[in-house]
Structures are given as C-alpha cells and as structure tokens.
Amino acid sequence: MLKDLFLLGFIGLLLLLGLKRPFIWVLAYIYIDIVAPQKIGWGLIQSFQLSLITFVAAFAGWLLLDSKYGSRFTFRQGLILVLLAWCGMTTLGAEFQDSAWAKWDWVWKALIFAAFLPLTLRTKLRIEAAVTFVVLAVGTIAINGGIKTVFGGGGYGELRLLVDENSGMYEGSIISTVAIATIPLALWVARHTSIFPRHWTTWAFTAGLVFACLLIPVGTSARTGLICILVLGVLLLRSVRYRFLYAGAASLAMMAAVPFLPQSYVERMETIVGFRGDQSASTRLVVWQWTIDYAKEHPLGGGFDAYRANSFTYNTVVTSGEGPMRRVEYREVTETARAYHSSYFELLGEQGYFGLAIWLLLQGLGVWHMESLRRRFRRRDGDNRSWQWGLATALQQAHLVYLVGAVFVGIAYQPFLFMLVGLQCALWSYVQRVEGREWRAKLAPRSRPVPSTA
Amino acid sequence: MVDIFTLALTHGLMAFAAWRLIQRDELDEEGEGQPRSRWLKKRAPTSPAERDG
C-alpha cells in the first residue's frame, strides 16, 4: 500500500511538473512503459490506466501546448507506420484471433510512441532527458536485480525483480538483454549530463548501475545475457579512448569475477557450447525450421502468435531404476505451441517476408545512420569528445547488443527497442537540422557578407 | 527492503531530473547561434535563460 502511494505520488508529481513544461509528460510515459509501476503496486495503483493517461497527456501536450519548431518526420518514422499498418492487417487475418489481438494491444502503442517520440525531441536537452529517463527506468529494475543477485536471490527463472510475474521487461532473458544494452547509454549520460552535476557522485552512481546491469544475466542465468556482454565488450573496443588499457582491465575484471560466479550459473553457461544436448536450445532450432516452412505457406504472415500452430513430436530418453533393474525407454513426446525464441523468426512467422523486410530495414538503417553520424562528428572535431558522437555511438552499441540478443529471444516489438529507434530518429533529424544550419551559416558569409551588428 | 531502496533511489533521481528540467528554457527552445564549445560559452555573456537555470 505504501509502495502504491509512493509510486502514485511520483507519477502525480511528474504530471504536475508537466503543467509547466508538457514535455515532462513524454518522460512520464517513457518511465511507465519501461518500469510498469502498475505491476509493482498491489491494489490502488492497478485501478488507474496509467499508460493511457500519460500517453494521452504526452500526445495532447505536444499537439496543443508545445511548439512544433524543429519537429521533423523522418523516413524511419514512416517505416514504423508502415510496419504498424502491416501488423494491423495481419492481425485482422490472424490465425489465432484472441491472442493476436492481445498482442496487438501493446504492440501498436510501442510503435505509435516510437513514431511520435522524435517529434517531441526537438532540443538537445530533450534528447538528453529522454536518454536519462530510459537509463534510470531500466536502472530501477537492474539495480534491484543486481542487489538481489549479490545477496544470492538469483537462479534461472527465480530472480524476483520488483514484481511477481516473469513477463514483459521483467522476464529474465529480456531484462538481461535490455540491461546490457543500457550500459553504453548510462556511460553517455555520465559523461555528457547537463542535468546532474558532473561530479564524482554521478560517476559513482553510474559505476554501480553498470555493475548491476552486468549482474542481471548472472542473476537470471540467461545465456543470452552473457552473449550480449561479450558483444558489448567487443563493440566498446571500437569506441574507448585507450584500447589496450580497456582490453587489459576488462580481461582482469573477467578473471577476477569468475571465482565469484555461482556454480549453477557456470553450469548453465557451459551449455552454450554443448547446446545439442540441451532441450531448450535444440527445440529452438526445430521451431526456427518450422517457421521457415510456415512462411513458405503463409508468405504474408500468420498474424501475432502464429507459433501456436506448431507441434513437434520427438523421442526422449527416460531412464528408471537402479543397477541391474535400470531401464532405458524411448518415449514419444509431442509439444505444441512452442514460442519462436528469436525476434527474426517471430517477425517471419507473424508478419511474413514483407513485415520482416520492413523491420530489418528499420533496424539496419538505424545502425547505418548512427555510423554516419559517428564519422561526421569525428571528421568535424578530429576527436570523439562531442555529445553527438558519443550519443550516436551509445545508441548504435545499445542497438547492436539488442539485435544480437534478439536472435535468441522474441523481443521484436518491445517498447525498449522502439525507444532506441525513436531516439536514433530524433538525433538524426536534430543533427540534420542544426548542423545543416550551421554548415549553411558557415558558407553564407563567403557569398553574401552580413553587416556586423557588434 | 531492497525494493524500497531501489525505488527511492531511482525515483528520487528521476524526480530531481524533472525538477531541474522544468527550470531550463533550453528544454523547449534552443537559442540561435549559441557558441558551440564550452570554452566559448564561459566567455560569452550569459543569457537570461542560463541565469535562471
């Protein structure tokens, strides 16, 4: 009950502050979409449609109260809307109507918000504020899980993260991927923040947050998380200033960490290599094969949750008894409705070739746009100190980590991914607008001298 | 206990951030032709927006 009041008080405060500057409502929506405070509370808070209230506030605040100066609609936002329309169409013709509509219910919000978010992020401070809120919102879950992992509350499917259910952002593999993807964003905030004091306390908090994020895959024993950590480790090699120092420190930290890892975690991670003997991994391969065949029959996609159509029959080995009485039996097992466990196959099965192509284009363009921003600012400044270079790098790293994690987890429509996409669109369009203007201003005096006003 | 600590910490920081944000005019409008580097900014006369923030 106390928690409910606390969370409601916090949301009330954000709504109130939004009266002065409506952009705060956008931040409130980001917070609610990631943390889902209505799931943390027990009674009172669940009776409010928090997500809807803040979404309406954010949208109406932008439409009616905010200036539209600098709002640009980018190509990728258009792609998001095409994907949304396509998902709507496949949902209408979905094989499993009930579950398809249940999924549509949250997917459309994530997509609409991603298309809307860049319109509101017109200034540098707004972009920074949005990244800060994403980091702190994910941090709420990650710090909680990190502390619990340190005190031994972890285990596969056992780590209790603020809520009692193992779904949405609170599912083990999803939060592992998201937590690792958040690390570069957290580091960017610490380096370039203008909201918090640039002080050792900010760095101390960030160090704690990064450590907590690294602990999430340990706490949840999610194998995907370990792969994400390795990917991020390699990606950081590209962007850190002192490569050798970083590589040395990272390997030292890794060696120092191994003795502290719980045995259950080490055992589970060893199954990454010997995945053929592991049921969870081998059914994945079967489901993926099934999806490829399914897409051949349904090239336009089967709608959300089309995986429910699958069923697999295979033999398992069951041993019973001891010593001479030991019996080995082969039993035929049939499993139905195995989830995709991969975002790429999730897209292929649910949205067909076209949906997958749009989604891939949306993601691929993001990686490419961030790369071209990195080059542009490196060329302009000769070093990597600008906030734009840093943010493009952080967003690209977060995105790539997520896209690798997405190979093993069905997270194709998670709001977090679409927030990354929205932030990328915002940064891209901000740079085009502001830098383009500065570039033109630089060229202007040559052709047409402006009288000095000084 | 851990839950309360985490909620207080991150929500406190978000509330602090929101409080600081509403006091800054650059949140909604960016001044035209502001000096880009921090070095130049220190030397440029402070705008009313910055003094308020």
UniProtKB/TrEMBL annotation, chain A:
Task: Tell me where it resides.
Answer: Membrane
Under the heading InterPro entries, the entry gives: CHP03097O-antigen_lig-rel, DUF5935, O-antigen_ligase-rel_domated, WaaL-like
The GO terms describing molecular function are:
ligase activity
Taxonomically, which superkingdom?
Bacteria
Q: Which Pfam families match?
A: DUF5935, Wzy_C
Q: Where is the O-antigen ligase-related domain?
A: 209-360
Chief localization class?
membrane
Q: Which residues cross the membrane?
A: 44-65, 77-94, 106-122, 129-147, 167-188, 200-218, 224-240, 245-262, 351-368
Keyword flag Manganese: no
Alphabetized UniProt keyword annotations: Ligase, Membrane, Transmembrane, Transmembrane helix
Q: Which residue range or ranges hold the DUF5935 domain? A: 3-193
Q: How does it sit in the membrane?
A: Multi-pass membrane protein
Checking PANTHER family in the record gives: LIPOPOLYSACCHARIDE BIOSYNTHESIS PROTEIN PA4999-RELATED, TEICHURONIC ACID BIOSYNTHESIS PROTEIN TUAE
Q: What is this protein called?
A: O-glycosylation ligase, exosortase A system-associated
Q: Which organism is it from?
A: Alteraurantiacibacter palmitatis
From TrEMBL, chain B:
Give the domain of life.
Bacteria
Q: Where is this region: Disordered?
A: 29-53
Entry protein name: Uncharacterized protein
